[in-house]
Amino acid sequence: MNVAPMRGGTAVQDHVALAEIELCGELIIAASAAAERLSFDRIDEVLQVAERGEGAPGEDRARLSP
């Protein structure tokens, strides 16, 4: 995380890093409550990932994979 102290005691926060940390925390909580490994569908549910449609991010990468 990139936190830079500023004059007056305030700090600049990296909001993307904070969001990623929050998502990791949600996964840890879900994994600790599960009796077995989380399925990919359950991980998507925890991370609130919508189903990919036509033209969705990552689609080109999936096509390029052998």
Write a concise synopsis of the structure shown:
With 66 residues, the protein is mostly helical. Helix content is 48%, strand content 6%.
* Gyration radius over CA: 17 Å
Number of helices: 3
Order of SSEs:
EEHHH
Mean pLDDT across the residues is: 76
- Count of extended strands: 2
Indicate the low-confidence ranges by residue numbers. Answer: 54-66
The proportion of strand residues reads 5-15%
Can you characterise this structure?
This protein is mainly alpha-helical. The C terminus is likely disordered. The protein has 3 helices and 2 strands. 48% of the residues lie in helices and 6% in strands. The two termini are 35 Å apart.
Question: Which descriptors apply to this entry?
Answer:
elongated, 3 helices, 66 residues, mainly alpha
Outline the secondary-structure elements.
Blueprint: E1 4-5, E2 11-12, H1 15-33, H2 40-46, H3 59-64
Antiparallel strand pairs: 1-2
